[in-house]
Amino acid sequence: MKLATLKAGGRDGTLVVVSRDLSRCVAVPSIAGTLQAALDDWERLAPKLDAVSVGLNAGHLADAFAFDPAACASPLPRAYQWADGSAYINHVELVRKARGATLPPEFHTDPLMYQGGSDCFVGPCDDIIAVTEDWGIDLEAEVAVITGDVPMAASLECCAGAIRLIMLVNDVSLRNLIPAELAKGFGFLQSKPASAFSPVAVTPDELGDAWADGKVHLPLVVAINDTAFGCPNAGVDMTFNFPQLVAHVAKTRALAAGSIIGSGTVSNKQGDLWGSSIDNGGVGYCCLAELRMYETIEGGAAKTGFLKFGDRVRIHMADGQGRSIFGAIDQTVSRLP
Amino acid sequence: MKLATLKAGGRDGTLVVVSRDLSRCVAVPSIAGTLQAALDDWERLAPKLDAVSVGLNAGHLADAFAFDPAACASPLPRAYQWADGSAYINHVELVRKARGATLPPEFHTDPLMYQGGSDCFVGPCDDIIAVTEDWGIDLEAEVAVITGDVPMAASLECCAGAIRLIMLVNDVSLRNLIPAELAKGFGFLQSKPASAFSPVAVTPDELGDAWADGKVHLPLVVAINDTAFGCPNAGVDMTFNFPQLVAHVAKTRALAAGSIIGSGTVSNKQGDLWGSSIDNGGVGYCCLAELRMYETIEGGAAKTGFLKFGDRVRIHMADGQGRSIFGAIDQTVSRLP
């Protein structure tokens, strides 16, 4: 089953069931007006939504209409929780290597995660808005899950069973604000502006064999200004899978239905730590910072700049037959009016 | 106007208007079923809620009933944002002094804030639940505001005008998990379990002259196991006021209506940095960590332990005539069943 949220209809938008090929959708006001409402009562409502999905995919629903990703909000336009991991340790190792630091051994057993702002997500085709390019605007292409209720101290099995939906995310980072903010010791706040999620969130069964071991085993495809930038496999080098990330959050507190847990920037190690751009035959990157780290390690300084006003970022994922699973995050960087 | 949320009625509970003396309340389903719904449409609904408040305080509402804080959820049982400052620099200075570190000068101009989890707040009279006392369970008594919508890069005036409601909070901290978590560099996650807020949230006008300069100029009263522990004035030594804290969050992103912004642990400097327990004639503390820091500075080691299962924490604030403004946070520490 594939679900999306159209912007029309208020702060939480309007829930629609989307056809597998992303061409058609249908509103389901008699089942749930919003995705949060569906998640709040998932056990009862998911079978009803699934029945709609079956009918839609069979072409049987007369009230279906064309699905337009540009009309979408993020699947949860506002959420009660967004916690983002750094499950791809290569990304963390690289950032540290560029500044001459090594990776603490516990980073392989204790996930690095931060609590993000979840009150104002932007839509998948909305602009990335900033006051100035000087903030060092960067994309971070990731995979994320939406959970049901998770009790405190939940087991990995419980956390795995609580994963309701999967989607993509552009966790925009303001790189030039990060060093001073992290130096204060309390984590990210100003350096993590509004994230955008893929037009569509899907139940794990939609991924077939590509959903295994709590990971999505498919390339995450990133382009900047229509030039291929990255296609690392989200199932490769993911040190902590999604059940482990959920369990990390749940260690000391319960999670409410609708919590979004992210993977962190997808990053493949590819044998060594550098020289893996797509031009060089590698799988490229899911953020500019990583390319800049490679450049720093190789040449002593970063050559590539961060995003400029007018730059366009596209993030999507296709199945084995090249069909888009989630629709594309497709954002342009723009100045605050 | 005073507002509260009864637990009955679903995940977001049921909004009630509460009388000024906290004795009576009335549900307002024809205006707004939940506090979030009221905040989402505040300009239109607040006057209607205020009219109910006037009638209730005049004793004119036949459908009013006894107000029971124990039946309350936090005013927002789940929220889209909880960001907590450390506006009382004395608290930060003390923590640093105990470990031999000084306060960076920019801490006086750049607020220290963290993004907290907001999906699962507990009620004002609910237990503080933990798996083990070894986590180092501590209270943190604070003041918090709930905002309306705030645009990105909002001015201080705009942020001041967006403050809709004021309440108290117990921002529980797991002290023994903090050092390792902060050392990882991404801020608090496991070390900040579910917070609890006061039974009642009030509009700023309810505070009269005590709401001035974006601060609440009244003592915040804390007791542990019915023994007075702290009564520092929340209007004293607050380096950053609430409009400044809201503006800090809004620098790079908009805030959605219903965002909760906290003051951090209230702490008065009282001339020097130590010897200010209530027994010693001082105003005491709003967290055990602060007392332990005083003990460390004075005697080389902390003597007071953190909270134990069965311990009771009470936090409230009274007006100049001794009348409770927000009702009391009254929690007992208990082991996860």
Please give the structural blueprint.
2 copies of one chain form a homodimer.
Chain A: E1 2-6, E2 14-18, E3 24-27, H1 35-40, H2 42-57, E4 65-66, E5 72-73, E6 82-85, H3 89-98, E7 113-116, E8 128-130, E9 137-138, E10 141-147, H4 156-161, E11 163-170, E12 173-174, H5 178-183, E13 196-197, E14 200-202, E15 211-212, E16 215-216, E17 221-224, E18 227-230, H6 242-250, E19 260-262, H7 288-299, E20 312-316, E21 329-335
Parallel strand pairs in A: 6-19, 8-21
Antiparallel strand pairs in A: 1-2, 1-5, 1-14, 2-3, 3-4, 6-7, 9-12, 10-11, 10-19, 11-13, 15-16, 17-18, 17-20, 20-21
What can you see in these coordinates?
The structure is a homodimer of 337-residue chains. Chain A is α+β, with helices and mostly antiparallel strands and 337 residues long. The first copy, chain A, is built from 7 helices and 21 strands. In chain A, the strands form 5 sheets. In chain A, strands 1, 2, 3, 4, 5 and 14 form a 6-stranded antiparallel β-sheet that branches. Chain A has a 6-stranded mixed β-sheet with strand order 7-6-19-10-11-13. A 5-stranded mixed β-sheet of chain A has the order 8-21-20-17-18, with no helix packed on it. In chain A, strand 15 and strand 16 form a beta hairpin. In chain A, helix 3 (89-98) crosses helix 7 (288-299). The radius of gyration of chain A is 19 Å and the shape is globular. The two termini of chain A are 38 Å apart. The mean pLDDT of chain A is 95.
